[in-house]
Structures are given as structure tokens and as C-alpha cells.
Amino acid sequence: MRYRIAPWLFVLPGLFFTIGLRYYPIVRAFYISLFNYNPINPPGVYVGLKNYADIFKQAAYWNAWTNTFIFLGLTLLITFLIPIIQAVFLGEIFRGKGFLSTIYLVTMVVPVSVNVIIWKWIWQPDYGVANQLLKLFNLPPQLWLSDMNWTKFCIVFPGIIGGGVTVLIYWAAILGIPSEIMESARIDGCSGWKRIFRIVLPNMKFIIFLNFLLAVIFAMQIMDAPFMFTSGGPAGASTSMGVYIYNTAMTNQVISYGRSGAASVILFLVVAVMTVVEMRFNRSERE
User: Fold this and answer.
1) Is residue 97 a contact partner of residue 107, using CB atoms and an 8 Å limit?
2) What's residue 187's pLDDT?
3) pTM listed for this prediction
4) Which residues, in sequence order, are CB contacts of 95 under 8 Å at separation 6+?
């Protein structure tokens, strides 16, 4: 009996906090979404699905969805492949691996707020580095973060630097490839790019898929970067679903926790469905 109970004693604290800090807020958000929620005298007036119907009628809500999917596309296009490339080349060099892996990891030490301050200075239209570089090539300066056509790109672009724990995860996957396979590839003349595309990348497929899944979830929930860069501006051009939910609950002229809860529940369902579809697609591909 002791051996049966002991594992549960280790699992229960994590299970308790997972349910209490993750799943309970989801259920609570759905509960709040059914009311014209009054935080002073909760829960307020029951309105059923009216909050859902109201947000569906808002142009700002659909604009936030459009921005969110654009953020998703830019994230996968600009930032997703960079750590894979860095890890592959890190596995190909013979010297300086420890130094480079440390450099990649150091990027995680820089707080997001500091990173945003640096890049806001780079994108500054009057004296920023970005426009100074354009002048060198006789190109017209841009407003960058103040331009509706550029703002989403400017928010996502800093991720092109790459680095972080993701590089080390990919590198660990490369180190996990059996040495016999790598040696056989060299003997058979499979070297250089052939070895990368036929040996290295196929053996990283599961890790790449897992990080792709996490990248999609992160991009769909993106909130901190658009909020710190532009607060969702200009004119809502960078308002993601996360920023929309926050603004609905905290900063709009008519504060509505019920509508914010409804938008949160829908975002959760959309991300959950996308995750299930991606996992099933990966499973069918393996089979």
C-alpha cells in the first residue's frame, strides 16, 4: 500500500495546482461569460449567451482575430525556422560549441520589457537605426510602429535573432542521434547537406513538430509584445485577441468582464481545436 500511495503523494501537489491555477480559471471564465458580471456584487445579471452574440457583432472582435492569424503567420515565417538552422549548424561545427550554446541561451536572460525598449528605439522613425539603414541605400524612411502596414511585422521581427532554450532542445535532439547512424552515413558518402536533410532533420521530426505546436499556441495567445510595443495600435492594427480580451475587461469605456470571459472561452476552444487537428495530422503522418 505504501508503494501505491507514494507516487500519488508526489503527483498530487502538481495536480492540485494545475487544476486550481489552469483549469479552474477556464471554468470560471465560462461562468463569468454567462453574466453581465458585476465584480462589486457578483455575479450580476444572468444573460446567457448574450455576451457571445454581442462580441460577434463587434468589428473590433473580428479585426482582433485577423491580426492574431497574421501574427501566427509572421511568427512561423520569420522566427520558427531560425532556431532549427542555428541548432543544425551548431551540430556541424567542431569548435566553440559551448561558447555558442551559451550565447544562444543568454538571450533568454534579457527581459521582454528591456527587449521591447531596445527595439522601439530601433524602430523610432526620427532617429532610429532602421531608418538610418534605409538612408544608406537611398530608401525612404518608414513610420514602422506607427504604420498600420508595418506594425505587426515590427513586433514579430525581433524574434529573427533566434537563440533561447529552443536551440538547445534541437541540439539535444541532434546529439541524441545514434553515432552508428552518423558514421554509416559518412562511410556511404552521405555528407554535408545530404546528411542534414536525410539523417539529421528526419531524426528531429518529433521535436520540430512539438515546437511547432508550441509556437502556434504561443502565437495565438500573443499579448505582451503587441501591448508593450503599441498597446494594440495604431487604430487597432496590432490588437491581438489577447489585447482585445484585456481591453474589454479593463480599459474600454464600458468595462465588460462578461464579454471578456466570452472572448477568452472562444480563444481557448479555437486553440484547443487547432492543437487536436495538428496532433492528429502528425499521428496519421507517422502511421
Assistant:
1) no
2) 79
3) 0.89
4) none
* Residue-level pLDDT at 160: 87
What residue has cell string 506594425? 151
Domains of the chain: 59-286 (1.10.3720.10)
Positions in the chain short of pLDDT 50: none
Predicted confidence at residue 190, as pLDDT, reads 76
Q: In which residue are the cell numbers 533561447 written?
A: 164
Asked if 198 and 188 touch (Cβ cutoff 8 Å), the reply is no
CA–CA dist 84, 42 (Å, integer): 49
How confident is the model over 173-197, as pLDDT tens digits? 988 888 888 888 777 777 778 888 8
Is residue 61 within 8 A of residue 263, CB to CB? The reply is yes
Is residue 275 within 8 A of residue 217, CB to CB? The reply is yes
Q: CA-to-CA distance for 61 and 91, rounded, in angstroms?
A: 45
